[in-house]
Amino acid sequence: MVALKNTALNMMAIGAMAAVANADQSLEKRYTSSSSGSLVKGGCYYSVPNVGLFTTRMTYSWDNAFTLAATGVGVVQDLVSSLYTVGAGNSPLPRRFDLVNIGVSLLDPSITLTVPGGQTKGPISSAQITTAYDDILYGSVRTVAKISSVPGTTHGFSFYANDTQEIDFAFLTTSSGVAHLTNEQVSADSPATSYQVSAPSDATSAYHEYRVDWLPGKAMFYIDSKLVQTITGNVPTTQGFWLWNNWSNGNAWAQGPPAKDNVLKIRSIDGYFNRTSVLQTYAATPLGCNI
User: Fold this and answer.
1) Which class in CATH covers the domain with range 32-65+81-289?
2) Residue 14: closest CA among 60, 83, 74, 98
3) Does the global pTM surpass 0.70?
4) What is the per-residue pLDDT across 120-139, written as a single tens digit (0 to 9) for each?
5) Which whole-number Å values give the CA distances from 156 to 23, 101, 107, 130, in the listed order?
6) What is the Cα–Cα distance from 100 to 114, expressed in whole angstroms?
7) Where is the signal peptide (predicted)?
8) Are 36 and 278 in contact (CB under 8 A)?
């Protein structure tokens, strides 16, 4: 459903606009094995109850209108904005992830990923943010979000390494009453592992927590802390990155493009990760860190 990042931009915003920092630096140059995020604690892990231990925590909340008005999204060192084009392939239209489509809502405090309405020619301008590091090997990620009520796009909260190493928590805004939970097939002859569960009845008018726990041998999906699906087939085993996006290419899956602005609102992201570049520096018998 996604293509590999070819450009990564530090995400900043002033009011509802986004500005660029370190635009010419690659992920590899900016995040090396000696790098640590703001919540990487040397020598101890984050202990997530009933899940496991993780080296890194990434947590952001955009639920305060006063703070958003003063700083916008602010400097977010662990998230980057995507800026690249995905070819049409077998779909009607290509799509392009643009920085301008990432903003903030002050009336409904959140960051926003927008697919502008009324587009008729490709590439369809869309929006995506990802973790700034691509060495994640297992994690537990909670996204508090409100789904758009405008038909014609796909919202995705996903782990991605490549097209055969991918976990998707997705919504089609044309049918927002259903959540699509998928481990993508690891090979052409692997059985499909994609399931549909009921989304909250007010998914387009209220915020809900959508969570994925990716562990060895399984991916577990939660809505508002309730386990709704466990998938044990096609579980990724390769390090990669986490992403959040809103896109359309006119295909039978995403449909659209939307006639009006389609806005995915994210109020918070709280992620716990094992990163391969960090894990190797930890003691064999770590301490637990309070979360």
Assistant:
1) mainly beta
2) 74
3) yes
4) 999 999 999 999 999 999 99
5) 24, 15, 24, 11
6) 9
7) 1-23
8) yes
